[in-house]
Predict the 3D structure of the following.
Amino acid sequence: MKPVPYYHNPLQRVVEAFFLLLCGGVLYCGLEVLGRGWSHPSMAVCGALCFYFVYRVNERYTRVPVLMRALVGALFITGVELFAGCLLNLGLGLAVWDYSNMPYHFLGQICLPYSIFWFLLCIPLAGVSRLIRRHVFLSNV
């Protein structure tokens, strides 16, 4: 009997989702700590959601050029950043970040330089997504 591919097994999909969310949260907070010396717990949630989304885009749209997938990822991340910024910084006054001194910012919550950074970061994440699928979850999808 042929084994069922991982993407047809609901339990494996749950394990995969948990793994991706955990990796995204830990990696993003680590990136922030390296970049500015500290992070906020809410950034683990944002990083988890963004990594999960970028992974799924790269999983589902393998035939779409990587630059287009990176653009979709960057737009999603920028949207999450705007939503989280409006909620956390403007709504709750937590002052997790403030881009008011950055060029081309919107409400101090998103800015063009970071959107470009997210785009550039999504390019290697396409390869990372592929490596995770093939070597962690043993899939050729």
